[in-house]
Write a structure and sequence with these properties.
This protein is 31% helix and 24% strand. It is an alpha+beta fold and 495 residues long.
Length: 495
Amino acid sequence: MADVALADAALAEERPDRMEEACGVFAVYATGQPVANLTYFGLYALQHRGQESAGIAVFNGAKIRLHKDMGLVSQVFDQDVLERMPGDLAIGHNRYSTTGSSRVCNAQPVVLMTRLGPFGLAHNGNLVNANELREALDHLAGEFTSTTDSELIAFALQEAVDGGLGWSAAIRQAAGRCRGAFSLAIGTPEGLFALRDGYGVRPLVFGHMGDKHQGQWVLSSETCGLDIIGASYDGDVGPGELIHFRAGEPVPERVRWIVEPAKLCVFEMIYFARPDSRFFGESLYSYRHRIGEMLARESAVEADIVIGVPDSGIPAAIGFSKGSGIPFADGLIKNRYVGRTFIQPTQAMREAGIRVKLNPLPDVLSGKRVIVIDDSIVRGTTSRKLVMALRDAGATEVHMRISSPPVTHPCFYGIDTDNQEQLIAARLTLDEIIVHLGVDSLAYLSQEGMLEAAHDHSSHFCTACFDGNYPIPMDDAIRSSKLMLEPSGLAATKP
């Protein structure tokens, strides 16, 4: 038992010190096109959103073929598999588990049969009433094959269709039984449907291939998925919107199924989404550059160089350099071929810090006062190892600047976060965090600065992980699963 405990502790220590990604959804509806291949590339572009499993469901007339497995997109699919998946409508999914264990039975899309034929569903987000919905669907419990809330949404849809509703009405009814964050791509015999929850917590965009009059439609969690297959961006699936795409029709049917205030997850802007994806009409690179400039204005410090933690910290670091006038340098080299693995490093490697993924450059760092920019600190474990590695490389001072406010509250809407007691800013003061990390100084971007950098869209974000203001109501049991009653540290200073 002692060995098991030590192994569990080692695994916990190796968990990434950042917010974990949401999932990615992608879909193509295009007659005469290799939709499975196109969906493969779309998922490839969205791989950063989930690396645990991947799947594609393809409609060929009234038949549907599903292939899904554990691993990266390139590991799950090859050309032989894709060639065995002809059709004109494909639904794809990359998974990072936020509810339900990391097993192949929990991979998506979810495929079910109804009186109107089969459908495939891919989901990004998290329900906060999953237990309530599961109890309501308990009469179907014998048919459950997974432990995910995504399957619950699918069974709610199946029940609505089998109860006599058409696809559009059934999707609206099923969505009305859900509370939380859910961006959905749904393939049916009557076409492709896209839906977002009323708050629009998770992103979902659509576009077209070729001439728009051909009606060849693409759905993606981010615009980078459209770019990789040469599709044109048409717009966002709006918060609380249901869109029905039909074959060959140049104008989709759009309806607002519920009205709530828009609350896109602000971490999509700061970290999750790729910097080349576009939100609110501009690339996220531009926004991340601006918050770096804002951070420089808010927390100036004398130093010789500015470095960023690759890859997500780089745009903010360049912005900080511009705002401060301190030169930017590449002080950390990232091994981009290190994925999630169950093979643990040796104790000696573990004691060496984080150099499996990041290696400092002594030629750049030695004798220098260094400002290091990162997008967030969650638990503090990786940040502490990073600081030690920078000092070992010869940095005389290490000043850490974070391009987001302190993470003091867990997420319930599709991001895998620790309990509040494991969030370093929830239990330690700023001075205590400085001592824990071993830095010469530490400063976070203010919430006001973060929102100001978003310009006219500052009211459109969920910021619950920073301030505890959860926009979507949830049961006390759900809240208490991750929240402490008496937070201390920086969390205690929040209103």
